Amino acid sequence: xxxxxxxxxxxxxxxxxxxxxxxxxxxxxxxxxxxxxxxxxxxxxxxxxxxxxxxxxxxxxxxxxxxxxxxxxxxxxxxxxxxxxxxxxxxxxxxxxxxxxxxxx
Length: 105
Prior knowledge:
Blueprint: H1 9-24, H2 38-41, H3 55-72, H4 77-87
Protein name: Ribonuclease H protein At1g65750 family
Organism: Cajanus cajan (Pigeon pea)
């Protein structure tokens, strides 16, 4: 789902919270202190992190990859399908959404 839809910040925060609970093995009812901040955990391994990913950043990068493919790889089957069906063969960056149409697709 992360690579298809823009997740709200509250959903990303909840997913990160569940990842923290899984990592530190805490239950949700007791207050606890983590030994390392979440910002340190999501750093790359070379910088002392545990290579876990921040949900919001991952969601943004996956959606950016889709846009990149839509612009730079028109020969991919899914890109040509979406272009012909929804964009009517016009370039993505010049497309204007007609009134009454969905802003998602």
